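Justification of computing resources. Each target in the renewal requires a structure prediction run like the one illustrated here; the chain below, 246 residues long, is used simply to show the kind of job we budget for.
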Amino acid sequence: MTDFRARQAELAQAMRDPQSGFVTLEEDGEERLSVYRSLFFNNIKNFIAGGFPVVKEVLGEEQWLILVREFMREHVCETPYFVEISREFVRFLSHFDCSARGYPAFLYELAHYEWLEIDVSVRDEDLPLKACSGDLPERYTLSGLATLASYHYPVHQISVECQPEKVSEQRHNYVVYRDKSDNVQFMITEPLTALLLTIISEEALPVPGIISQLKAVIPPTQVAAVEHYLPQALSALIEKGIVVKA
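Resulting structure tokens:
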């Protein structure tokens, strides 16, 4: 049994990495292995390409193929499900020294931004109910179909023609969410809105509770402006489906 498992491990490594040195005992085994290896690589490559089109475009075909091969060779997936490959790819990049290997420093954040669209689109959550105008819920929380993300780079602007070379002075905040029509949307958020969403994502709160939390981190001179801003901001966020009643 030990020899069989060792042989399985060798075969799996040969599928992931053609340079692993695996040698089959069958005379025509290498040809057969080559067919399976090609199918395996192309399936993974095409699936990842569908989820990360901007990453692929920015890298170019040659560097993209090298990155996919590195992912297959080096990453140990935590799930056997094919649909989770995109999540595993992002996990791989989170521990990947992009700059040292000749990739753009923003690679992980761009990939994470693209993956969020996939993640939000497949979440098994009920769509948020539309609140009636002027009838705001008593307590507020972040929708299960929305995620707040913060990056060092303006990931929404990255393209072949626009590739930032250094981190921004301030963080870039986004909300990726599924609207009431079941479509995935992206919204750039100001720091105050990002702070608001962070607070209610941790605990469902009424307006006084939110203001109390905000007072702890904003200058006293801004409290009055925040009290005026909050009902309007919550109403707009509810209308988009980002915030829901608790």
